[in-house]
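Onboarding guide, step 5: your first structure request.
Type a short instruction followed by the sequence, for example:

Predict the 3D structure of this protein.
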Amino acid sequence: VQLQASGGGLVQAGGSLRLSCAVSGRTLSSDRMGWFRQAPGKEREFVARITWSGGSTVYADSVKGRFTISRDNAKNTAYLQMNNLKPEDTAVYYCAARNKYTQTYDYWGQGTQVTVSS
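The system replies with C-alpha cells like these:
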C-alpha cells in the first residue's frame, strides 16, 4: 500500500486548507484512514480518522468543529478539510492507512507541511 499526501502550505490564521491522500496498491487490506500531525519538538499526534466502509469518523478534541475528514472510495482518496486554522495547527501532517489484519497504522504517506501564521 502506497500513500501520497498533498495540499499543505502557508496560510494565515483563520484560513483554510484541504489535504488529500491518495492510496494505491493493496487497498483492500486497509479498513480506515487516519491523519496525524507532528509539530517541531513534539510527538506525533492523532488528528482524525475515517473508515472506508460506512465513513465513521473520530476527531481529536483540538480539531473538532474545525476539521472534517472525508473519503472518496472510487478514487481511493482521503481528505482533511481544515477550517479556522490556528498557529498551533502548524505541523507536518501525515496520512496513514490502517492494516485491517494487524489493526495498526502500517502504511504512511510522506507528510505535508502546514504552516499557519498569526
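Each response can be followed by summary notes, for example: The longest strand covers residues 30-38.
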